[in-house]
What does this fold into?
Amino acid sequence: MNRMQLIIPALVILAGLVLSSLFVVDEREKALVLQFGQVKQVKEDPGLGFKIPLIQQVVKYEDRILSLPTQPLEVTPLDDRRLVVDAFARWRIVDLVEFREAVGAGGEQVAKSRLDSIINAAIREVLGSVPSTSVLSADRTPLMNRIRDLARREAAALGVDVIDVRLTRTDLPEQNLAATFARMRAEREREAADERARGGEAAQRVRATADRTVVEVTSEARKQAEITRGEADAERNAIYAEAFNRDPDFFAFTRSLNFYTRSMRAGTSSLVTQPDSVYFDYERFLRSIGEGQAQ
It folds into this structure.
């Protein structure tokens, strides 16, 4: 009985030691087996691993691709036009031993802080060597590739691989936006004023052409009217002359009748003439006709 009491605790302790010597590595992880801070084993394949209980410890790291968004960074391109740049990087641990030696017990948090500094320095160096038009252009792939390659060389000492770097935002600083918008608005207003001036000039030319056309058409119409009127007067005078030549007495008679009609209207001026005036020649004749009709 006493022997069994000793065996059972020993088996429990042995089972505990066996279990504590086992560890499992997920397919999304890598692991290091450390002994007093020294790397004794690298476990990169998923599955079951072994370590010495109580002496060795297991430190696990991400085997997946990690992302690192950077803080907004102000850069100055070649043309001294300051820009605010946001970026993010994708990276992965490729050498566990070198990674552990570089970041120590801080792990991925320390690696992110150092990568952030490396990527910011690469962004400043690359974007500072080109004009702002290249940074603000639609196709910034060559610039991003240069930043990635430079950051990759610097980050190799950390045991990580910088897979990609992308610029997400490139804008002017807030203090410059108002001045830029004001300048853009002034340029648009100047262009609008130029367009209005050109439109007014074109309208003035059109109005001047129309006025000149009106004057020319009106003058031509008046000229044609005068010509027509002159031809009509000539034709009328010719008719009058022909009629006068055919019967001068009748022509004189009709002219006198017209004169009587105009001069005897109500409200006309008084006529003062001699008794033997030609005015009375046909007047006596007409009066005698009127008296004969009265009898």
Remarks:
- The chain has a mean pLDDT of 80.
- The CA atoms of residues 93 and 160 lie 4 Å apart.
- The longest strand covers residues 160-171.
